Amino acid sequence: MQQVWTGFVNQTRLGNHWGIWAEGQLYTKQDFFSNLYENFVSAGAIYYLNNNTKLIGGYSYVYLYPTDNLIQPEHRPWQQVMWHNNFPRLRLMQWLRLEERFRRKVNDGELADGYNFNYRTRYNFLLMAGLGKIAFAPKTFSFVFNNELFINFGKEIVYNYYDQNRFFVGFAFHTNKQDNLQFGYLNVFQQLSAGNQYRSINAVRVFYFNNLDFRKK
């Protein structure tokens, strides 16, 4: 499968401890630009323990497209701890997320009453290495390595405790001191619910990361 993944992620800091998370993503299904695979919007509240560690609670409303003629909605509350380590030419970001997934039931290719439910944990690791003479300065590039592992659990999970792994390698263009545009290659290796079937997705990923700070200087 060849797909295009696009996204916009915003973190807005309102004060010393509180902020807002807002996000939207859209994935195509095949041949890069044919049909839709998934899209969602997210909103959440951020609590800053300090400048490098934050707790986030959010909610995502998701549309899944299991077939070309079916849209399967999902409600996805989530909780996350996120931390950063910054060095002169390197930036590290990690998060650990817990999701509660309520996916609308499907029967014979049509939506049915009720929801399937399971938990999912996600561990995300990102490394960014500055390539400019002054690392991470506006109008410079960075190298980006990102890997995220997904694990399912819950009584409705029988064969696919391992859900998927997302491996990304590419570049970031720093549009200003806070924001960057990331683009590159993404591979998604996923175990399907039957347990003995797997899916490999090769995708072009283009995400814009926007950060605002409204604290008094």
Which shape, going by the Cα principal axes? Answer: globular
Query: Pairing-aware structural class of the strands and helices?
Result: mainly beta
Kindly identify the CATH topology.
Porin
Q: Tally the structural domains.
A: 1
In the sheet with the most strands, the strands line up as 1-2-3-4-5-6-7-8-9-10-11
**Low-pLDDT stretches:** none
User: What can be said about the biggest beta sheet?
Assistant: 11 strands, mixed, barrel
- Rg over CA atoms, rounded to whole Å, is 18 Å
How big a fraction of the residues is strand? Answer: over 45%
CATH architecture: Beta Barrel
Per DSSP E runs of 2 or more residues, the count of β-strands stands at 11
**Head-to-tail CA distance between termini:** 48 Å
Count of helix runs: 0
Helix content: under 10%
In brief, what are we looking at here?
This protein is mainly β and 217 residues long. The chain has no helices and 11 strands. It has one domain: Beta Barrel (Porin).
Can you characterise this structure?
- This protein is an all-beta fold.
- The protein has a single domain, classed as Porin, CATH 2.40.160.40.
- The protein has no helices and eleven strands.
- The chain has an eleven-stranded mixed barrel.
- A hairpin with a 6-residue loop joins strand 10 and strand 11.
- The model has no long low-confidence stretch (mean pLDDT 96).
